[in-house]
Amino acid sequence: MTADTRILDQLDEWQAQGYGDLPVCMAKTQYSFSTDPLWRGAPEGHVVPVREVRLAAGAGFIVAICGDVLTMPGLPRHPAAERICLNADGEVEGLF
Asked: Which Gene3D superfamilies match (predicted)?
């Protein structure tokens, strides 16, 4: 079974279970309409590969995982935890 067949079968199953009217959230690079972050903006002539789908029934949507994307939303390139430390007096620094 190919990935495409597996994904389509999963979507068919969710349709049969009553989730067919849910909106779809595309999880992909934020830098481009493609799934390649190096193709900035709105490049033409590309295909958006969906590698997996996830049902977020409680939130009320289906997530299509595209390309090589992580699904941890809203994380910066350098986490705030890298700037947090204790100074010589034992006080926390770098929170704000």
From this structure: Formyltetrahydrofolate synthetase, domain 3
pTM of the model: 0.64
Both structure tokens of 72: 């941890």
Q: Residues 55, 19, 63, CA angle at the centre, nearest 5°?
A: 30
Give the tens place of pLDDT for each residue, 42-94. Answer: 778 878 889 999 999 999 999 999 877 777 666 677 888 899 999 999 999 99
How far apart, in whole angstroms, are the C-alpha atoms of residue 60 and residue 54? 11
Alpha-carbon torsion (3, 12, 63, 50), positive or negative = positive
Alpha carbon 90 to its chain centroid, in Å, reads 38
Which of 32, 17, 94 has the alpha carbon at shortest distance from 69? 32
- Per-residue CA distances from 20 to 8, 23, 92 (Å): 12, 9, 49
